[in-house]
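I am still learning, so can you show me any protein sequence you like together with the matching structure tokens, please?
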Amino acid sequence: KLDRSLKVLFLIETWFKKSIDTILYMFYNATKKLELELDNIETQRSAVTTEVESVEKVISEDIEGTFNAFG
């Protein structure tokens, strides 16, 4: 009877370990996916920032040229 109980406990332990491994793998994959998405967002943010700076420079130069033309 003890031998049977030990086998059952071993099976339960094995099942829990596999379940925990599966859950950890799912979290790992989700984390990697979020990291890739964050990298993509950071790249887009950088591109937008560069574009805004470029437009601001053009506007500033245009305003300066306008004032110089009338000044």
